[in-house]
Specification:
The chain is an all-alpha fold. It has one domain (about 5-60). It is built from 2 helices and no strands. The protein has helices spanning about 5-30, 40-50. The longest helix is centred in the N-terminal third of the chain and has 30 residues, at about 5-30.
């Protein structure tokens, strides 16, 4: 991989990390401000656990 490609990939990873951090902040705000139902909070906690354990195949898409 060339240095340019590594730099582009690094930039993309950094961008995604920032987006993930922002999503985490927003979810915490929703939970702390009690905008979510108990069921929604439970689903977030379950999804968080699956992601931490890298069990992405067990995640269920919610519309």
């Amino acid at each position: 991989m060339t240095i340019d490609k590594v730099e582009i990939l690094s930039d993309k990873i950094s961008f995604l990390e920032k987006k993930i951090d922002r999503i985490e902040e927003l979810l915490l705000l929703l939970v702390e401000e009690e905008y979510l139902t108990e069921e929604e909070k439970l689903r977030i906690a379950q999804a968080d656990e699956l992601i931490k354990n890298r069990k992405f195949d067990k995640l269920v898409k919610v519309n």
